[in-house]
Amino acid sequence: MRRSNGLLIAAIAVALVQIGFLSWIVMARAAVLRDGREVILKVAPVDPRDLLRGDYVRLGYDISRIPTSLLVEPPQAKSTKGHMVYVRLRKGADGFWQPAAANLDAPPSGALAPEEVDILGRAYDGQSLEGDTAIRVEYGLERFYLLEGEGRAIERDMNVRNFAVVVAVGSDGTPQIKALMDGDMQLYQEPLY
Amino acid sequence: MAAYTKRLKQDLDRWVTRGLVDRSTADALLADAVSQDRRSLSFGFVLMMMAALLLGAAVLLVVASNWEAIPRLTRVVLLFCLIFVGYVGGALLKLRGHDALAEGAWLIAAATFGGAIALIGQMYHLSGDEEAALLTWFGGTLLAAAVLRSGPLTIGAGGIAVFWMVAKGFDLWSGGDLSRAYPIVAALVWAVSLWTGSSYARHLVALSLVLYAVVLAFHYDVTAVSLVLAGVSALLFAVAVLDPKRTEQIVRLDGRLDMHALIGFLTGAAMLQFDHMEETATLVLAAVIVFAAIIAALLLAGRESRGLRWIAYLGFTFELCFLYVTTLGTMLGTAGLFLASGVVLALIALLIIRVERRMNLRAA
Fold it and tell me: Which of A121, B56, B190, B241 has CB 3.0 to 4.6 Å from A137, enough for a Cys bridge?
């Protein structure tokens, strides 16, 4: 009897731990969508398809390349390996947000102006930080999943028109895609759950 | 009842009637054989595991095809239910003695956990996190294996870890890198396998470590890594042959450490020779060492282990073909190539037949 109870409790515990973990990811992401600051980023496309995840378009942004001249403190490290990048975005006159400053591993010092927000990204490994160059940064915003078969059409349109992405940025800088825009038209709006 | 126990029962009956053994001894012997038989892997059990893997794959594919007809929150809840039902239902089945069904249900639950990670990634357009996703899946599966004391789940976790190591090592994702943490991950699987009593998981880990050495060789220096792999393997082989009992107590590989060591040695030798394909002198020296090693392995450990013998034959054939292609192959015309191939194959076959006969004679 004790053994049977033990195994059942163990099974329930495993199920709850795994479900709890998954729920936690969902909650964290939904919280960013709900409470994050909204910014609009200009898109530059790349290409679709990934086996396990259905159809998606790969997205690149103006802020995917950060010139080292924007770094507020000269970097101590010689290479980007393992470094996080905080980028201070400022709203431009055209409504798109552009990088104003950046810093490695910590937000740029100084208080945020009303039209500013800090976004967190990760520098691709193995880039030199020496001299006047630009570093490539990944924000976890580089994919947009679509219905099967729609990837191609959108990819084609992207080469002709300007696309943009509405991003919610959490207080710790975690970004989360909120909507995909074709010019002024909203193509997809993400529900919280 | 399996073929062996059936035959044993007939033999025992005959021995009892001839008065060679008494009835009680015969019954005890038969009962022991039957219990051993049950413990070994049955065909039905393997089929059940394969069925579970297929069902698990179906779950993953449903996620992959972006199943838009159902609202996504519903899909997530559905997967959560499947995880819960899989683990708890598996436990209930286990308690009723349906071991194969129980392990199958657990495998499906673990696969669903992986599918749910992918689905959530897709829901929120998460990118660049394949590695984190795989490691999370691995962690969840290994945890389930440890808590439920499940052998198949241990193997599953080991499989995910191997996939992670290979995918990362061979640059499947952009910015691929050597998975330096793999030895730690392998050690974790090993530790859990001791608790869950899954020697198959340990065999998987042992093989994966050889594979890891191959990945290491690609990233660093082929010659150095190959030499170390071959050296360590030779050492392990020696230890396994010199003190089989104590070695088995430590490694718990069903007495097959010698086989894994031979695989490691041959892999190291093969990489070394591929790397020095142009240098005939090195090739010949390496080939002589490999042939000597294979013969030594056959003589030292071949009698007890059929698996080791076949690895040895395979290594021998491979080495011969390799030498032949790199040295003689270019000198012969097509007809000559076929002729020589036929002769060489016949020689190998003759050799295998003779060795097998001698081993069987000695074993008998």
Answer: A121
